[in-house]
Amino acid sequence: MKISKKVCKEYNTAFLNSKNKLSELLSFYLRKHTAYMYKVLWLKLLWRFLYAGLAGMLFVTGFLLFSKWHIRYTTQKQMYIRTEDVPYHKVALILGTSRYVNHHQHNLYFDYRIDAACKLYFSGKVSYLLVSGDNRSIHYNEPRDMQHALIERGVPKNAIILDYAGVHTLDSVIRCKKVFGQNNCIIVSQDFHVARALFIANHAKMSCIGYVAKDVPLQYDYKTHIREYFACAKAILAMYVFHTQPKYLGKPVTIPEPAQIHEKGGA
Predict the structure, then answer these.
(1) What's the pTM value of the predicted model, to 2 decimals?
(2) What is the DSSP string of the chain?
């Protein structure tokens, strides 16, 4: 049976049309499938980033909480609140802070630390007050401000030793040992600050105790209490991981032995 050319042509045309339609259908399917796969891939990546971010946040939060707890737990037995319970030490290390905040408003942290230092000195618990703080410029000098405040309260100038390179708590504590030769001292500051300083001192093989100055109400400065979580974490890393040393050391400074018992206060 012979098939006419016209019929063959029609068959070829129909075949080509069906082939083109199939190609178009396949192309359409591939485009849709590819778009879907990209969408699925991006969603998977997004979820992975979210999970990683959440895990990171949980880890950081947990580390911050652990750092503060660990520092508190390991130092709480070395901290004193009542002046009469404090054993005698040759030197008390007063940790520095600014005397004024917010345009010449008195800083309660500063005032309460000075009050605590005076209680120790006039009770005969220490012979020298080592005031350590930042001295970043001629207009900002924490040790000098502490010295002036102590003298105003009646502490003799020759009983005050200035450390101008206590730019951080770690620097103040380590310099107390390596520069001023004091392996045993009383660290004076607010409760949270004393705990962190004692943790650093313990890691530096120092035998220190802490005398807690009056704390500042939370409503007065809540930011400091929040920052303390990060400061504790930084101290943990500095001691256990990075083994951080003071920014400045310098030549040793000899603190003489006390010549006599204080005129004010007991033995």
Answers:
(1) 0.81
(2) ----HHHHHHHHHHHHHHHHHHHHHHHHHHHHHHHHHHHHHHHHHHHHHHHHHHHHHHHHHHHHHHHHHHHHHHHGGGEE-SGGGPPPEEEEEEEP--SEETTTEE-HHHHHHHHHHHHHHHTTSEEEEEEE----BTTB-HHHHHHHHHHHTT--GGGEEEETT--SHHHHHHHHHHTT--SS-EEEE-HHHHHHHHHHHHHTT---EEEEPPPPPTTT-HHHHHHHHHHHHHHHHIIIII----S---S--PPPPPSS--SSS--
